[in-house]
UniProtKB/TrEMBL annotation:
Record key words, sorted: Cytoplasm, DNA damage, DNA repair, Methyltransferase, Transferase
Protein's cellular compartments: Cytoplasm
Name listed for the protein in its UniProt record: Methylated-DNA--protein-cysteine methyltransferase
Domain of life where this protein originates: Bacteria
Gene Ontology molecular function terms on file: methylated-DNA-[protein]-cysteine S-methyltransferase activity
Role, per record: Involved in the cellular defense against the biological effects of O6-methylguanine (O6-MeG) and O4-methylthymine (O4-MeT) in DNA. Repairs the methylated nucleobase in DNA by stoichiometrically transferring the methyl group to a cysteine residue in the enzyme. This is a suicide reaction: the enzyme is irreversibly inactivated.
Native organism taxonomy: Bacteria, Bacillati, Actinomycetota, Actinomycetes, Kitasatosporales
Length: 172
């Protein structure tokens, strides 16, 4: 994660536990769940700012978890390699409630033999939920890999399939 910009963060509650939102120069660049596998060191998040650039992201996340929104319209600053950027851009094209395999994702970005590399890039997605890496599954339909943990991946997919959030009483 780059550190040559002004960064701030906030922590909000969600049905899936606390979410840490990070912004660089006023643009969302991170959304991490508790225990997130590839979360950068907290000291790179900047000062806590519960207002600043976050109200619209919180509003859209609240609508998503309430079942009132199926996509996000936020400016994002996805920091990664050109290959990771291609993977993350394609993730945003997977419709709400649908899943694709790592191999299909690799084919969609024009690298059909790169499903392992796609899996690694998917796992390093810095803006989970909003960039829906949870919608990518194994070729046989198995739930494999998720930075926020397989239980959360299972819960998010069930929620998008018409279920209730993990704890509907804990919306922001």
């Amino acid at each position: 994660m780059r550190t040559d910009s002004t960064r701030v963060h906030t922590v909000v509650d969600s049905p899936y536990g606390p979410l840490t939102l990070v912004a660089a120069d006023g643009v969302l660049c991170g959304l991490y769940m508790l225990g997130h596998r590839h979360q950068p060191p907290e000291e790179t998040f900047g000062a806590r700012d519960d207002g600043g650039p976050f109200p619209e992201a919180v509003r859209q996340l609240t609508a998503y978890f309430a079942g009132e929104a199926t996509d996000f319209d936020l400016p994002l600053r996805l920091e990664g390699t050109p290959f990771q950027q291609r993977v993350w851009d394609e993730l945003r094209r997977i419709p709400y409630g649908e899943t694709i395999s790592y191999g299909e994702l690799a084919a969609r970005i024009g690298s059909p033999s790169a499903s392992r590399a796609v899996g690694l890039a998917n796992g390093k997605n810095p803006i989970s939920i909003i960039v829906p890496c949870h919608r990518v599954i194994g070729a046989n339909g198995s739930l494999t890999g998720y930075g926020g943990g397989l239980d959360r991946k299972r819960q998010l997919l069930a929620f998008e399939g018409g279920g209730e959030p993990a704890d509907a009483g804990r919306l922001f």
